[in-house]
Amino acid sequence: MKVKSFLLITSLFIVGCTNKVDVPTPEIEEISVVNASAELVRQYALSDSFIDVDIEAISTPDSRSTISETDMAKAKAAVYRFYKNVKEVDGNLVCDIPDGASINVSETVFAALKENLQQMNDGIKEAREKGYDVVQSKPDSAYLNSLLK
Question: Is residue 19 part of a domain?
């Protein structure tokens, strides 16, 4: 599966000239900046409706103009549902649900989000192995609420 700019949470930001790395809240940057009705996002995020969106299209900035506001809202809602089930365990972020059916999203969407989470954990591990102090933000209520706006 191709995962493009939609899944950018593996980015690490080096702070100044110190040996410290800031790992942002697991925020899928492209999703957090798209325009979608907050009401529509909340409707999908908090309902039991099934979500299946074209991750490939959403992850490609050039094709984003052809994506409907409804699909953008569904994407934000899927991220919300997924990260609501992510917690920190031994310095790694872990999703404690087994499949997309658990949060009523397609297996394609679930696999993309799960792969992204793994990429972020790999980036954190690599930074630590290089001797950086890693500041890892967790998907807290502030992050989750930001997805609903």
Answer: yes
Residue 92 belongs to a domain: yes
pTM: 0.78
Domain housing 50: 13-147
- Could you give the count of Cα atoms lying within 13 Å of 74 in the half-sphere of its Cβ? 19
pLDDT in tens, 5-14: 233 332 322 2
DSSP H helical segments within the chain, as ranges? 29-33, 38-46, 55-58, 69-83, 107-129, 141-147
The burial class, CB within 10 Å (0-12 / 13-18 / 19+), for 59 is: buried
Residue 6 maps to a domain: no
Per-residue pLDDT tens over the stretch 32-90 = 556 788 999 999 999 999 999 987 777 677 766 788 889 989 998 999 999 999 998 88
Backbone phi, psi, residue 32, to 5°:
-70, -20
Residue 113 lies in a domain: yes
The answer to whether the CB of 72 falls within 8 A of the CB of 109 is: no
Tell me the C-alpha distance between 10 and 3, whole Å: 12
The total domain count for the chain is: 1
